[in-house]
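Fold this sequence, please.
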Amino acid sequence: MLLSISLHFLVIAFIILLGVVFLLILAVLVYGLLQYRRQVSIQSWTAAIDSEIADAIVNSGDVARHSKISDATHKSGFRRVFLEKLVSAEKKFSGGAGHVIRSLFEVYGLEKESLCKLKKKRPYMIAGGIQELTAMKVEKALPAISQLLQHESPQVYQEAQYSVVRFEGFDGLTFLNDAQGILSEWQQLRLLNSIPAVPQDADSKIRQWLQSENSSVIIFVLRLIRKYQLLNMYTDVLQLLSHRETEVRNQSVQSLQALENSDTLRHLETSYDLQPEPVRIEIMKAVIKMGDRRAAEFYTEKLLSSASAGVKILAAQGLCDLGMTEQLISMSSQADISAELSSIIKHALQEKI
């Protein structure tokens, strides 16, 4: 009797297990079928969208709604693909072709889709909306985008920063007044490339940003100063050689070299002994770029007295660049010279040949 009951339960368990396995297989098949249909739809949509964009550009801006495209615009997946293709195309074309692409954005009513994304909760969707509105130059979206400059997500506020600068140029940098997040290297490059010019009355704003508690803001502004050769900022940059952050000091050295005047060599030489080694290395590199023959004594002193091999290598390079090879040869032949220094000098001379 007990054996019969156990066998009965075993059969039921086996049937249930088979049912579960069948359901799992069915779920995988249904998922695969849906994914396949989705992929086929995306390929079909992509082909239609590419054709629409190409036709509009070739026909010199003759943009009109076509039924094949219009019938699909009610599908969220299609609108997503359409927006991605338009944004991608806008990056590749400019002038008249860029205007045509933006016209397609308007004709097919995709602006509303992008604006709605700004109100979503997921950061990647908000950032996507900002990218689309920026690429399509929807200036009326600027107030809404500006409100996102203080968003908690870096993905969102970085896109908002880029957007306002794309729309407003230098005037869009007002977010630097109280920027809390770190401006990444990539973000700084994007912002710099979006600023067509610096106004002549911008000195007071730039000075304010150079005093920011956010070191990445200072570094960005120093790069801005270098790019646009803002000579009026020389004294302000010089003061940053005593900043608490080493990278700010390094960027200041690079900026002083870019803004070089007759006093720059003296300023760098005077500051040298007050700096940590990374900044000393940066000063040596800057002086070499300057190619000032007055630096010969400075190079010689550092070559003979510095404890840093990196500094000695750069000092020897600097002397070579000034054409002082005979002095180096004479120095290397002295009996009391160290093996390390001799090796450094010989290496510098070989590099010069």
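The mean pLDDT is 87. The CA atoms of residues 153 and 256 lie 35 Å apart.
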